[in-house]
Design a protein that fits this description.
With 1076 residues, this protein is of the alpha+beta class. Helices cover 37% and strands 20% of the residues. Among the domains are: 208 residues, Alpha-Beta Complex (Isoleucyl-tRNA Synthetase, domain 2); 188 residues, Isoleucyl-tRNA Synthetase, Domain 1, CATH 1.10.730.10; 132 residues, no CATH class; 84 residues. The protein starts with 27 loop residues before the first helix and ends with a strand.
Amino acid sequence: MSDPLNFKTTSQFDRSMVVPTPAGGLDPVALETGLMKIWSDEETFAQSIEARRATSSPFTFLEGPPTANGKPGIHHVISRLFKDMVCRWKTMEGHVVERKGGWDTHGLPVEIEVQKQLDLMSNEAIENFGMEEFNQKCKESVWTYEEAWREMTERMAFWVDMDEPYVTLHDDYIESAWWSLKQMFDKGLLFRGHKVLPYCPQTGTSYSTHEVSLGYKEVAEPAVFVKFRLEGDNASILAWTTTPWTLPGNVGLAVGPEVTYCRVRITEPPSKSWEGRGGAEVGEELILAKDLIGNVLRNQAEIVEEFPGSKLVGKAYEPLFPGAIERGDSTTAWTVVAADFVTTTDGTGVVHTAVMYGEDDYRLGMEVGFPAQHTVGMDGAFVGGVHQNLDGRYVKDCDDDIINLLVESGLLYREHTYTHDYPHCWRTDHPLLYYAMDSWFVRMTAVRDQILSHNSSVEWAPEWTGTKRMGEWLSNIKDWAISRERYWGTPIPVWICEQCATEHCIGSIEEMSSMKTEKSTMPPELHRPYVDDVRLRCPSEDCSGEMVREPYVMDCWFDSGCASFAQWHYPFENEDKFAGSFPVDYICEAVDQTRGWFYSLLAVATTVFDEPCFRRCLSLGHILDKEGKKMSKSRGNVVNPWDHFNKEGVDSIRWYMTTQSAPWSPTNFDPNGVRESYAKMFLTLWNVYRFHSDYASLDGFDPENKSGFVEIPDRSPLDRWILSRVSEMAGDYNENFYSWDFHKAGRSLEDFVVNDLSNWYVRRSRRRLWDEADSTDKRACQHTLHEVLLVVCRLMAPVSPFMPDKIHRGLTGNSVHLADWPAGSSLVSPSLPPRDEAVEAEMNLVRSLAESGRRIRVEGNRRQRLPCRTGWIVGGPDLSDFHEILAEELNVENLETEDDLDAFQRIFLEPNRKALGKKCRSDLPAVLAQLDTADPDSLLLEIEAGIAALAGYEITMDDIDIRRTEKEGYAAKTLSFEEGDVSIVLDMDLDADLMSKGLARDITRRVQAKRKELDLDVESTISLSVWVDGIELSDDDWNHVQRETRAGEASLNSGKPDPGSDSFEVDGASVSFLIS
């Protein structure tokens, strides 16, 4: 008879050893490193792919490329875990899962690291050092920790091809990125513009909006209410700003034309609670929005006039910093204008406008003709001529000086500290400036509807990452500023004619070669400065000019956003590989990549292919320290993964990270939790395997011996129960995997292994395998354990790949990673036995009754190993098939059944005084006296028969309350179900025979524990000496001890025990024993 689980294997099991017993104890690190060598020697990873290539459909995965110029940390472990887990799972499901590694090698992360090494703290310093030399250092830097990444990846068992990865600095990759940019250019989606962008003076480059979202910090900064003095009027307009450094660049004030404003006159000095600098004199007049007077003013004031904002439009005011900006031919400089973005939610209802340092400011300035001049240089310092106290200084260092200048000129009304989230450079941690500058943009606003549609087609986990975090952000999408004023990156392939200003984007090396001038040579590689030297012929028919390249590199997020096709050098080759892998089935990174890599993948795929780039995306929560705090070197709470790889092992770490919380929730990494996972899950599973393999080896058990196979219907209820439970659990496990609830799947498997398999099935099956003679029941138990362990190993393998493989190899001779996935019965799969819900329900009741028995013992102060003479099941279904199991669990000599609890209970009839008082009135004392002396059992029968009377009054059930208690010597617990109550009753009397039996079981348990401590084989016999004082051990019970402990020679002694013996006390007896 074939194996009912129908497990397929890829190689013949070596029958020279049948289910061998593993040598020695469990050393997880040795187990894992040993398997790593086996996997390498056998090329198991490659086998797992090739074995399915001919008959299986692909499941495509795209690796989010790390940068190898920094050491990998524990946060990289969790992302690589969930990548590997899903790929292993899909492989076992029968898919071909190619896993190409990748390296992100361009951009600021690399440049900044090299700048630190070379002490080059500015772009000017880099150019003086030499761009070619600097980029060469960058190229070398990206491989600094490649070996560390490889070692970590291999050690944590992330199976990915790192021998032929895609690398963003390779010309093939760059050429594909160029091709994609040309597609955008040809569609009119790539354009050069002048806009206000987030800009970092320290790196000398602008950022895209999705990069800005990676670096917000909560900061407390000075905010000021400034008085702008109207020309020809004694009033000042109040405006509020949180960026004092922009005030020298002020050229206008914006108001809401329909907002109600007030002119107020100060009537009293400020209150004593006034804090900080600034103020207003009594009689001074200020203008601000009416709705904000209460929030802004710190003086008593009277309203002089109310009017709409439109009345202020056109009024001129005095510049705050005369001479900082030239008026030029502007007719609107330093006047009030109307704007649609003005609100009364905060500030004063008047917006200070510095054209070059705000997105709304710039748009408004262009519309109304404000002067567009910088007061701040690209280095983040004020330019000359702004003010002698400010010129040449970094703007963020000047806030206090600017406020002092306002105070000196009487233009500061008040200051306060404002706490808000402000964007910082995601690489240097410096605050960004919003700065008007030239840049190249991808017109994402033109494809807003398409990218929203593609985003909605993605299966996001969790769903809110796509609908909220990504979806709401995409609804307000901005054009993508992709050019960077940097050196190490993919050069933007745009050339501009020096003569006619024609713009041209090339899309291939061949196109560059065909368009280059005769004097230009092809670059040795597609990086700066080499491509900068290539001049192209202008493609315009009526122009003979030459074109020079725009001196920018691409946003490195654009690089990684091209990975889905550039990894194959598409469209220049591998069209079949690209076609078979796009859109990608699965990607996975931390949640902060939502507006990073996830966005760039969607953006590039939308603009180039008008398709989503990926079908499924798992967005991971961050990993924190055990207290839930962010890990940082300054806090000293950074975890080195190798510390735990080499202690508890990788399996435990992977299991802990999977089961600790939902993948998208933050995970607190607690080393104690890792150790608990090891002890609870892995030691338990290993001990179950050891139990099976020990007896399988002794008996020569061969799972493929058809003559010894026992059909499932012919097995014991215990076997049928565990098979049904593993089928149910596997079904739940599958459903949780498909819904991304990997934590729930792992917890259900752990609960099954610990509570169902180990604590119940194995514990209840030990005696079945102790019999040295062959029997059907013994073989059924061995087959059942074998089958269940196969399911457990295969379900567990994607999460923790080492121990399941070790056990699976012991059970079958084959790697679990070459095996098929056991789908659950809920998915109507033939690979698991059908559910037997009846036997599950019965076993659940048996376990509940056993637990009730344990509670009875606790409440009655009766040890579990001290037996009871008799137990009774009262009510409920027929559990005769489970009597032996339940009797052993209850530790009773005899287990019987009863229909009701009457035989074990005493009845007390207590008067319902209210009912009897109304019925008997003055005769109540006589009735109560007779009730007190009546036999309760007889009286109850008479009441039920309708013939009961006391002191001449008819007594009914309404006149009494019935109270039941157990008779002396009995204890009971009742379980209530819809079908009725079921009770367990124990005889709690104790005699010398039961004391002897209890002592025998305690001695047996202690000796067995000592055998395990001595690492004795299960079949080894021992010489046992026992000394007992205080309880007489019967001959039968002494014989029981000898049989259970495999004592070939044994002596029961009195007197003083031998030196070196182990001792304990129980139930007033002193016991010592010695194994020799």
